[in-house]
Amino acid sequence: DFGERKGQAERMLGLMDVFLKNDPISLQKDILHHVEYTVARSRFSFDDFEAYQALAHSVRDRLIERWHDTLIHFKKEDPKRVYFLSLEFLMGRSLSNIVINLGIRDQFADALSQLGFDFEVLAEQEGDACLGNGGLARLSACQMDSLATLDYPAVGYGLRYQYGLFRQVIVDGFQHEQPDYWLNFGNPWEIERIHITYPVKFYGTVTDEFLNGEKCKVWVPGEMVEAVAYDNPIPGYGTRNTINLRLWAAKPSDQHDMESFNTGDYVDAVVNRQRAESISSILYPDDRSYQGKELRLKQQYFFVSASVQDIFRRFKDTHKKFDEFPEKVALQLNDTHPSLAIAEVMRVLLDEEHLSWHRAWDIICKIFSFTTHTVSPEGLEKIPVDLLGNLLPRHLQIIYDINFNFVEELKKMIGLDYDRLTRMSIVEEGAVKNIRMANLSVICSHTVNGVSRLHSELLRTKLFKDFYDLWPHKFQYKTNGVTQRRWIVVSNPSLCALISKWLGTEAWIRDIDLLIGLRDYATNAELHQEWKMVKKVNKIRLAEYIEAMSGLKVSLDAMFDVQTKRIHEYKRQLLNILGIIHRYDCIKNMDKNDRKKVVPRVCIIGGKAAPGYEIAKKVIKLCHAVAEKINNDNDIGDLLKLVFIPDYNVSVAEMVIPGADLSQHLSTAGHEASGTGSMKFLMNGCLLLATADGSTIEMVEEIGQDNVFLFGAKAHEVVALRKKGPTLKVPLQFSRVVRMIRDGHFGFEDYFKSLCDKIEGTSDYFLLGADFMSYLEAQAAADKAFVDEERWIKMSILSAAGSGRFSSDRTIQEYAENTWDIQPCRCPF
Ligand code: F55
Hints:
alpha/beta, Rossmann fold, 9-stranded mixed beta sheet, 6-stranded parallel beta sheet, 49% helix, 17% strand, globular, binds ligand F55, transferase
């Protein structure tokens, strides 16, 4: 490899120790070295944040060793790789996760304590990387952890947004958004690769030209920007494998701009160049609707184009024939957001590699797989044809050609069923013509995955029924999962130690199926005692956070009842709040004796509303208004408290979830594609109060009906209930609590009017009224179980014991075997 520089290379290798050492002295030297030379602070004066930075750099050095070894190993073995394309990755903090996966947490903690530092305190200094909205983005992060741990040859691709998801600040109970300039404090977890750049083209025109007597298309772009790679190593647990998450940042292009410098004003030209950077500047905070914004489309193509160029470069390094492409490349589309990759690969094969349409299309059909994360037709992405044609003229042509061929084939198969042809076409006709990205993705992928069994059923019978009838073999599902490394080992160290003690091994951290072994001790008194202690420790941590944040003191004897997730009408945070008002009203109307029987509750709600989502924002305000009233009512005391936790993100979740006794998952059945928050709660021994929706159905199968508080209409009943609509009777209790809001019990009655109107009369689309009694019954059942402590703890143990199926390790293994057809490629130690 080194060729003429062999002698030099040997000398260099001789100068380096084989690997960095992990004994306390080496670690301490290393940390102090980084204090002085990387952070550039004096060894005698640095604060906790600077200590964190030095610590992070020492960890990074060790991470890089393994990352290099893995990349070299992959290069040597040249296995088929999966390229995971996602516009969002919600990584949260990295330090603890990385040292745990590298297996050097205790060594670092010891080394630090000898220096007078507490590892946990320094870890708290790290800010979250919030390059995503919600479940979809956190799922990508969990799946990267599993891909690395299971030794799969995988590469993640995404965008390096300068501004992550907005920070939620609450002022007078209202949500305000503030920018998250997360890179302000530096990012030790990324490696800037200034030499790995690709030009990305936009706008311009397409002309027909002749090349060697063949007609071909030439795209003359009107704008060019440069994509620069930032690599984020992702370490596996219990393996040397450390895979790469490559995020692209936009920089002005040097080649293209020379013209303007020669012709125009120098200062103007420089200022104009800065505009290029705006492509990767901001994450769109909306997790439901597509607004047809040009910048968003530019982001999608920017990251797709850079990733595809990178994939082709890697392939061409070692391969000549494109027919081998599908043996080496699997492209996974995380929702439709990266689906321009289909047109882009097609374009490169046709226009740059000069393959025939037939050969190129054959390759396309073998490499793409698509996972959708939505249930509703409105959730499917559409791009106005005008927008696409202007920004990416050649891609629009290719999409039209794909569609033309598809529709011709379809006619042969189903005849001239005009309605069906119209529904299945990639192009939606109408006042504004749109490209249906979901149809494009389904047509061009060999596999379409749902994220839970119910979701898959809905895809087959509703959303993609026409396609399912045509190609039943394409449709699969992989029930989502979450990584136990982050959601138990990192976030709940006491539970982690307890599980390892009772199972007699730490092997469950890689092999989640072992967790089921806890079932054997579900009634063991000694385990019960220890289990209780662990929950208490975590409740204390959460209570301290609540007090520090809001000044509210909460009782540790109360049931900690949590609902944390993005705010959405279908997730029904409003149902929770109405239930709380009902509880409050009941307590107010009780006599002293009855009050003694009330099970005390601390209700905790958290989550962000999309900035333009008015109703969701009103829910947040209502929560605060109700909390204000209840928490200051002396009649109520510790019997009921309501807390809104602001700025819910990954690191807040790591603290909230282990401290929860009960968690709520209230989506109207048939609306939550999967739900992954519930899995994190389950793993932490938190009981679920939930509708039969998304993955919950499968969770109930694992842990048994008796161990979940299920309520509400089932998915098939929801359809019937909606049809009944106006004739539906709502319970008096429901009307009463809504009336309390309308009457100004909590103030702001004018502001809340539209919220109340949304759930009364014929407009209660998400069926809060219809499910209300059933919800109250489930809540009463939870109260009853909670006072029977032994029963509660048993249910809690059985919840954690039964959570194994919901590890992303299982999900990823299923993808590898049934969708991507890839094998593990383990880096030797
Ligand atoms: C983000 C951007 C856009 Cl443009 C649209 C949607 C989103 C987004 O964040 N979606 C999302 O989080 N979907 C969720 O995916 C989870 C993982 O599969 C599911 O568990 C959850 O049910 C689903 O709502």
